[in-house]
User: What shape does this take?
Amino acid sequence: MLTALFSSLSLLVMQPAGAAGLPNLNSQQAASLRCAAAFALVSHGQSIGNADALKWPAMDAQGREFFVRTAARLIDETGASRSQIEQLLSREAQSLIDTNEVEAVMPACLLMLEASGV
Assistant: This one.
């Protein structure tokens, strides 16, 4: 289930590189995906008491709902499978970790969360 992915996203085991079979996303879809991944990472950090994660608003409820709605919307809009969207989310989360960009994207993501009405 997508909520299980949300809970464990920071414990990723990445697939080998290569985007074969993964859908191309437009800029709005890519931004939503990036924020969904960031919210999952922050939520996990908050659950383990990470000081950097704790400075953000609690992500357990709203962040999870945004994540689930984003994943479902991407499945509907792109025709991708759940597995393909999970791969995209995992890749995005790993990218945020590798580039240490969670803190940089969170302000814009919080605005997106607020605008989403979740």
